[in-house]
Amino acid sequence: MERSSPVYQTYVKILERELVPAMGCTEPIAIAYCAAVARSVLGELPDRIHVVASGNIIKNVKSVVVPNTGGRRGMETAAAIGALGGDETAGLEVIAHVPQKAKDRLERYLQETEITVGAAQADHVLDIEVTVSKGNSRAVVRAVNEHTNLVYIEKNGQVLEERPIEKREDPDAPDYTLLNVADICEFARTCELSDVSAILDRQIACNTAVAEEGLRGDYGANVGSTLLKAYGTDIKIRAKARAAAGSDARMSGCELPVVINSGSGNQGLTVSLPVIEYARELGSSQEELYRALTLSNLITLHAKEGIGRLSAYCGAVSAGAGAGAGIACLHGGDYDEIAHTIVNALAITSGIVCDGAKASCAAKIAAAVDAGILGFEMYRNGQQFYGGDGLVLKGVENTIRNISRLGRVGMRETDREIIRMMVGEDKHGDTE
């Protein structure tokens, strides 16, 4: 692929835009970010904070530990630490470097500050509005569709910034419709490594460190270390265990940054750590690892794009398929092998639902990575799923479109029902 071609340049921009570091689960971090920006606009520490969020935000903040808060959870905690100690200029690393004095003051601030939360009425899957007040002054900040996509900023009734709610964060965003498996394979095979190496070096360093911390410490349900204890150290187990261990740590408040994919730290871990582990096992060169990670990241972004950032569909499924594709690439797989690996993997785990960010995400990641590996091993052994097998259609792009439709449209009511159950609104459910 020519370096000057629009597709080539678009793929580089997508990787630069998507593979960024975030400290903490991205949904509570987004609330903290809005609160930090609102405090900055207000010009003083608020004594009243009101957070309004869409159901998917509430779902993903409910059970996950917010970093730098002493193990606390929830929307109130995320808003409080953002307002109290967040760096409004740091994006998804807003609470990565909270001053110690802010950490020490957090419990008292939570007790003294009136913090209320509510459900957003607009029909956006990702929607956060934070209003902060002190005396007669107030500021309002709203993010929609993407975690740091600020569409509205107001102070004391004066609108400081207002932008149309677009699907993309800015008009200069790359064209994601150019993503397709054939071009991704070609790009990963031929791209100049200098265009991707810095991005991937950061992903390798950050995500490896989190995985090692997850295996070393006591986090969540310790899915990663349990896999190794129960099943041994075969490469297939190690690949799953490292991805799961990264999630173990991240979901339990580990204060290390993760390089994300599709707006998700768990997806960033899933798409990278199995590929890194396989590269070590195979003795792959640094170039081979770069190219496999380029492929796995872009495949995941392509598979997830049609579903959306948040839904009832577990994002680890797409990332597991991407990891399988990256593993196929490390083994020298061509387009056919990679495409069939993706189809096989998506066919295996397409029914996993997202019921919020929490400890069990690590186990779902292990299952998704297992599907990616099995999808690869199936095709390598002359086996595959064919068009007409459930949601599988002939052609990898058609299968990806089917899975996208399932996650975006077919599971819309499932998403609402999951949210109702998680927030205790299921008053007339089954009592069998």
What does this structure look like?
A hairpin with a 2-residue loop joins strand 6 and strand 7. The chain is built from 16 helices and 8 strands. The N and C termini lie far apart (59 Å). The strands form 2 sheets. The protein has a 6-stranded mixed beta sheet. It is globular, with a radius of gyration of 21 Å. 53% of the residues lie in helices and 10% in strands. It has 432 residues and is α+β, with helices and mostly antiparallel strands.
Give me some keywords for this one.
432 residues; alpha+beta; two-stranded antiparallel ribbon; globular; disordered C terminus; 16 helices; 8 strands
Quick description:
The protein has 16 helices and eight strands. With 432 residues, it is α+β, with helices and mostly antiparallel strands.
